[in-house]
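Quick log. Single chain, no ligands specified.
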Amino acid sequence: MTYVVTDNCIGCKYTDCVSVCPVDCFYEGENMLVIDPDECIDCGVCEPECPADAIRADTEGGMEKWVAFNAKYAALWPVITEAKEPLPEADALDGQSDKLETLFSGKPAAEAA
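-> predicted structure:
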């Protein structure tokens, strides 16, 4: 079993999950996070920390595409090990439908200046 980040993270990018992860398996894109399924130790401490309820166990139905999605972008994006402020529009976008099709950016997080 592993945990994955789903589309409700898009446009929100809360990082409460990052601060509790014991193995630093979160990776940061421009407007969302992903979990490296191969690095996740299945502890589950991140799931209840997500204010957007965007983290799911891969054992839930329909998670196969999210496992592949998380693996793909974890290989492309930089690791994130410390919590940051969420995106400015996070509260407004939390729960919006079709975010993968309309808002997702495959770009990695911008490097800190």
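The first strand starts at residue 3 and ends at 5.
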